[in-house]
Every structure is written in structure tokens, then in C-alpha cells.
Amino acid sequence: MKFFTLSILLYFSTIFICFSVEKNIILFITDDQSPDAGCYGNKSIKMPNLDNLASDATLFTNAFATTASCSASRSVILSGLHNHLNGQYGHQHNYHKFSSFQNIQSLPVILTKHGYRTFRIGKYHVAPEPVYRFETTLQGNSRNAVQMAKQCEELINSKDTKPFFLYFATSDPHRGGGADKNSKYKPDLFGNKSNKGSHNGVNEVFYDINDVEVPAFLPDTPTCRAELAQYYQSCSRIDQGLGELIKILKKAGKYDNTLLIFTSDHGIAMPGGKTTVYDPGLRVPFVVRNPYNSKKGIISSAMISHIDITPSILDFAGAYDSKKNKINEGLVDYDEAKKRAPKENRGPNFKNFHGRSWLSILDVKNPEGWDSIGASHTFHEIQMYYPMRVVRDRKFKLIWNIAYPLPFPFASDLWAAPTWQTQFKQGKDAKYGERTVQKYIQRDEFEFFDIKNDPNETTNLSFNPKYNELLRAYKKKIKEMQKITNDPWLIKWSYE
């Protein structure tokens, strides 16, 4: 009885401490965006609001998705668990039909129980809804972040004494909207209006194909440049929405009591990026402004990933036990959650996150103990089956292509991408970035890269006898990651 009373007192004291200083939270997440902005060294793309935010916040230069697939990635962001363990193996919509286990404890549900008002606007892309439930869904055009921000103004201005959590998810700069028929290269519009039209309230920024920067993993062709120009425009529209949201926060007097996180679900929607576990698929922009941090303009080298988002946000909200790396006692009844979930859609009873909170290192440029990440991919769309596991640190990166005998499958939008089709039609020996078309499609079982000296992942060292011992060490690291995360694919080491 004494223990029960003490637990209740501790729980409510935590709530009091949390809300004695208002701690609002905004998670601003874009769709298929690599770290393309001035603050990340790309001087050709115009994203001044993100650049300004970075100068007043912490910018992570080594931030990674754990999977370069939309639904799977978002499930990781909102659960703190790798997608192969939360059950969201791939896309949730239409015939793909993937969804998380019904006993998963998600970020919005936990925050609601903790006393937060929870809202979302824009792209959702996870399932089932009871697992990822927000109290309120706001309506808005996910291709117009400016309009989305204005739709959130009433929420932000509310006099409700409870803090809020806003999940602000754009569909930009995802491919979509058809082809630009006014260009001889017919690039995807990336959500832009044809004929240089503008979304309502947006001062569209247009780019010439000669003004874009072509990364090493893409072919430097006019077609690719035309697609990058459309992608840049979509990113600039996002930036205007970010600026509008910040303006609303400041006007409401809540900019200095709101944790603001800007990131993307994974890298750019180009072959070699999205759906791959190469760095262009996994690297994401990641800027965090904690209003209660005294140091600003920090550039952090810490290697973080999406599994760290949920524990970090809960840490800020006062709902996280950093010593045990779990949700505070009293917020979740795991036994009840497991009983509620039907046996046929029930996963393991997770109590510990796969990630951890980065809240305490936001003002540290080179924190110790943040030197590696792991990644996991199984599906994108249902027809895009290709499980991969990854460990990466500052020196080396190992990719295990579990289904390596199969040709690498394509997401439907990437297969149709003019950038890819232009090279594919030239034959298997045609160059695609620093690979060939054939090398992109047919992969080795293990891809081992000296990531420090070969950041573009061009030379596979797995066949070099000089690296045999090191390769074995990194295979062991993958196995260890799989054991920690209860990865069902661990079994393949036993029979192959």
C-alpha cells in the first residue's frame, strides 16, 4: 500500500513539474527530403527559414532514418521501435495493408495520457488509428505548408492550460502531380503547379536546371537536373510554411516555450535514395530548438536516428525514465494493452525503447557515446520486398542484403522516375551516379564500405581479403543489433 501511494505521489509530482513551465511540442516532418538546405551546405536551394532556425537551435549533421520507406519510417518516429518490431513493415494504405501491432504504445497516445492536447495535420500514413491516435485531426492541404500553418493558428492561440503536441506533416517534397509537360525532359512536378503556377498564399521559388547541385549518387543529366529543380521548389514551399508556423508561435508568445523539431521521414525520392539503405536514403535534415537551452547555433556531430525521437520528446515532456530508457511508471498498463490486442495482431510486450533521448546533448558539439546507428528495411510497397539490415559508425558501414539473389525491386514512383528511365534505357552498363544500372539492380549479399574515406559508398570491401577480420566484426555487430531488437530475420544466419 505504501509503495502504491508513493508511486501515485511521484507520478503526480512529475505532472506538476512538467506543467509548472509550459512545454509545448511541434514535430515538423517533411516527406522524402534529404539534408538539402543552406545550413547543410547546399547554397543553391533557398530555405532561409530553416537556415535561421538552425542558427537558433541545434543542427545535427549525422541524423538518419532507420528505414527509407514512408509508413515504416513514420511508425519508428512515433513509437521509438524499429519497424520490424512494431509491425509496420511497409505501406499502410490501399492493398499494401501493413499496420503496427495493436499493443504498441505510441507517442501521441502516451502524451495524451500525460496531460497533453494532441493534434495532427497533413500526412498520416500509419495504422491502425487506435495505436497512433491523436485527439484532434486538423484539415489542410499537405502540399501547402503555409496553409497548414494557418490552420494550426487557433490551436496555438488556445487559452487551454494544458500544453500541446502538434504533428505537422507535409506531403512535400514527395513525387506527385504528374509530369511537367512544358519541359522537354518531362520531370515529375513534386507537388508543384504546372505552368509555374502557385499554391494559395505561397510565393513559389522557381529554379533553373543549371542552378541545382547534383549529388554524386545521381547522374548529372539534364533530366535529373530538371527533376532536382522541381524538388528544390517543393522544398522552398515547405520552408515558407515553417516560417509561417514560427511567426504564429511568436505572435502567440509561445515560441519560447515550444520544442520545435524539423526533420524528414527519409531521404530524397530518387533511385539511390528513397527505399535504399545507402546514405542518401537514410540521411535526413534534423534541427531541434529547445527553448530552455541557453546555447544556440550548435552544430552537433552526434549520430542519431529516428528511434531517438519518441524518447527525446517524452524526456522533454517529463514522461521518460532515462535510467531505464522507458516510459514513466503509471502512464502505460502493458498487461492491459496486451490483453486488449487480439492475439493474431499482438506483438511482443515492449517496455524499453530501441533509441534514447538526445535532450541532454543538444548543447554539446561532439558528445561521447553517439557514434553508431542501425537501420532496418523489409518492405516499401507490398511488391517491393527486399529486407536489409545495416550497422554504420564513423569509419565503416555494413549492409546485409538478405534477399540478395533477387533483383532490387523498385517503388512504383521511382521506377517511373524520368531520371532513372533515361539511364535504364541506355542499357545495364549505363552510369547511374557512381554505379552502373546493373550494379544498382543486382547487389552483393554484403556491402562493406570505408565510409570515412569512401562517403559515396562506391567500393565494396567485402571481397577484399585484407578486410576479412573487420568484416566479421561488423557482421557480429549486425547480429547483436538483431538480438537487441528481436529481429525475426536473425534466424537466417543459422541456415545460410
What are the salient characteristics of this protein?
2 domains, Alkaline Phosphatase, subunit A, globular, 29% helix, disordered N terminus, alpha/beta, Arylsulfatase, C-terminal domain, eight-stranded mixed sheet, four-stranded antiparallel sheet, 496 residues, 16 helices, 16 strands
Tell me which CATH architecture of the largest domain applies here: 3-Layer(aba) Sandwich
What would the average pLDDT be, to the nearest integer? 93
CATH superfamily of the largest domain: Alkaline Phosphatase, subunit A
Work out the count of structural domains.
2
CATH class of the largest domain: Alpha Beta
Summarize the biggest pleated sheet: 8 strands, mixed
Radius of gyration computed on alpha carbons: 22 Å
Q: Outline the low-pLDDT stretches.
A: 1-19
CATH fold call of the largest domain = Alkaline Phosphatase, subunit A
Structural class: alpha/beta
Q: Which percent range fits the helix content? A: 25-40%
In percent, how much strand structure appears in the residues? 15-25%
Ends apart, CA distance between termini: 54 Å
Work out the helix count: 16
Strand order of the largest sheet: 4-3-5-1-6-7-2-8
For the secondary structure, the number of strands is 16
Global morphology:
globular
